[in-house]
Design brief:
single chain; alpha+beta; two-stranded antiparallel ribbon
């Protein structure tokens, strides 16, 4: 087992790296998350964090319905998302470098203030960070929280835990729903510097707003990603196991 001074997910990561190096999983298949949770006596999120790091490093592949397997040839980072838990797990993966964390007037970021339903007189906690893989930086993020939420978050844990899980743990406000909007935008000065790209180079932009069960906005984040180092795969499932029936609105358009 890795040294105890490391965060739990990193202890598991080091152990799994060593097992892969020594050929522990000769069949190519790794144990399931449930098996690893029982073995290491940690949460599922912690196990997923370690596995996501192995995905980044090109050592394993994770596919829905196929389990976790060793890779024959390294590939670029690909995130497979099927549920909110998967989206939160992404926050564990890669090296997370917090560049700054400070309160700012909501009036300075009107679009964010609207997303968080904040008034112009309120302040928001603003966390800037860069996420990196062995290939280099791949995501530059600006996360914002309402002031009453931000004041309760322990900054010493910002680089160790997904921020939205800190909101759940320290504010008793679990994320129940997340809205994500994907777009593209040219790299500005700060993003270009953080991601080591040229100014105006196209970036993938993900804007996420997490909501509590009662609809209260908890966190709004703008993530700018290098498309050559980051790929997000989303799975869409049928709601019911029955023939597809077009909605009335779609039928009207066909006429």
């Amino acid at each position: 087992m890795a040294p105890r001074g490391l965060p739990l997910y990193q202890q598991i990561l080091e152990t799994m790296r060593e097992r892969l190096r020594r050929g522990r999983y000769a069949s190519g298949m790794l144990p399931t998350e449930t098996v690893l949770v029982r073995e290491f006596e940690v949460s599922r999120h912690t196990v997923r964090a370690a596995l996501h790091h192995l995905v980044i490093e090109g050592l394993i592949e994770r596919r829905a319905g196929r389990g976790t397997t060793m890779t024959k040839t390294p590939s670029r980072v690909e995130w497979s998302i099927e549920a909110l838990e998967d989206l939160i797990d992404i926050g564990f993966a890669g090296h997370y470098d917090v560049r700054s964390a400070k309160f700012v007037p909501a009036v300075r970021v009107p679009q964010v203030a609207r997303a968080l339903a904040a008034t112009a007189s309120e302040r928001l906690l603003h966390v800037q960070a860069v996420r990196s893989s062995p290939a280099g930086p791949y995501a530059y993020s600006n996360a914002f929280f309402p002031e009453d939420v931000g004041r309760k978050l322990p900054r010493r844990l910002f680089s160790r835990r997904p921020l939205i899980l800190l909101v759940e743990e320290y504010c008793s406000l679990p994320s129940f729903r997340t809205r994500q909007v994907a777009s593209a935008a040219p790299a500005g000065r700060e993003a270009a510097h953080a991601l080591r790209v040229r100014r105006a180079e196209p970036l993938l932009v993900l804007e996420r707003t997490h909501f509590a069960r009662d609809g209260r906005p908890l966190q709004h984040t703008r993530i700018e990603c290098r498309p050559d180092r980051y790929q997000q795969v989303v799975h869409f499932n049928r709601r019911v196991d029955a023939p597809y029936v077009p909605s009335k609105a779609l039928e009207a358009l066909r006429r």
